[in-house]
Every structure is written in C-alpha cells, then in structure tokens.
Amino acid sequence: MIANVSTILTLLPLLAMAIPSTPEIAIKKRSVTCLNVGATATATWTNSAGQSCSFVGVVGSNYGTNSAGSGDYSCNGRCGTGCSGTAAGNVYTQDCFSHDICSYFNNASGGASDPNCGAAYDDAVDDYLLGVVDGCSQTNPSSAVSKPTSTPVCT
Ligand SMILES: *[C@@H]1O[C@H](CO)[C@@H](O)[C@H](O)[C@H]1NC(C)=O
Q: What pLDDT does 128 receive?
C-alpha cells in the first residue's frame, strides 16, 4: 500500500505538467472582436432547436432583469454579469454581446449548460479571459432600464 501511495504522489507533478503551457485558444482559432459602448451591434447565436437567431441592439444597453424577473442585463455586451459582475475589467465584445442577448430572451441560466445559450457562452470564454489584453476595455454606461421593443428572429 505504501508503495502505491508513493507512486501516486510521484505522478502528481506529471499530471500538472500535462496542462498545456500554450493556451488552447490559439488552437481553436477563437477570436475576440471588441465593441464600442453606444454602437449598434447584431447578436447571433444558435438556439436549442438548431435555428440561427439574430437581434440588433445597442452595446451597453440596460434591459434590467429578464421577463422571469431574474438575471442582470444592465450592461449588455460586457463580459461578466451586468455592469459589475466579476470580470477582469469592463470589456465589451461581440461574443459577450451575443451571449447576453441570447440569455436575456431565453431566460438562460447555468452558463455553458444552457440549451439555448451554452454555445454562445463557450464562444465568449476567450473574450472574458483576453478582452483586456486585446484592448476591448470601455467605460461602463450608466443608463436607466429600457426594455427592448423587438424580439430576436430565428430561422
Ligand atoms: C421566460 O420566463 C417568463 C416568465 O416565466 C416566461 O413568460 C417566458 O415565456 C420565458 N421565456 C422563455 C424563452 O422561456
């Protein structure tokens, strides 16, 4: 038994070394597209039915909570929840905008596990991690809640 424990302890550093030192991001050809607060942008995602959805909105818009009364959609397009959720900084990107808008209209929860917005969440992970380095930092707007007047188109 002692020998087995010793073997496991010996292998631990090797497991740690198995984590690649080069980020997977480059291999997956992911990309970060910055957006400017106040600009018009088109959110796109694929829903749980496999349809392509799109919605045109304003970066940094404040939709408040979703129609179920939950969530924080106070700074749409910011990587991180609302205007103040944990993040590396106040970074606004295309993928974070798409994920926020998808989440708002689908009452999404659970991040990557959400059936409608999980893929959009996955696409936004590199934006969340690299947005500051990629120069996507913006000043948060401080706009009052204004609900969207249209809904996404899914085909
Ligand atoms: C979101 O939740 C609200 C309130 O329960 C409900 O009326 C609405 O249909 C839900 N939207 C979606 C896309 O599930």
A: 95
Mutate which of 66, 103, 107 for ligand 1? The one with the most ligand atoms within 8 Å of its CB, which is 107
Nearest CA to 64 among 81, 51, 49, 45? 81
Residue 79 and residue 99: Cα distance in Å, rounded?
Answer: 9
Q: How far apart are CA 115 and CA 47, in angstroms?
A: 7
25 CA to centre of ligand 1 in angstroms: 34
Residue 68 CB–ligand 1 contact under 6 Å: yes
* Domain locations along the chain: 26-141
Ligand 1 centroid to Cα of residue 7, in Å, is 53
Q: Tokens in use for 10?
A: 């010996």
Q: What is the pLDDT of residues 67-99, one digit of tens each?
A: 999 999 999 999 999 999 999 899 999 999 999
- Provide the pLDDT for residue 30: 74
Strands laid side by side in the 153-154 sheet: 40-46, 52-58, 153-154
What's the pTM value of the predicted model, to 2 decimals?
Answer: 0.82
Instruction: Give counts: helices (H), strands (E), the chain.
Output: 4, 3
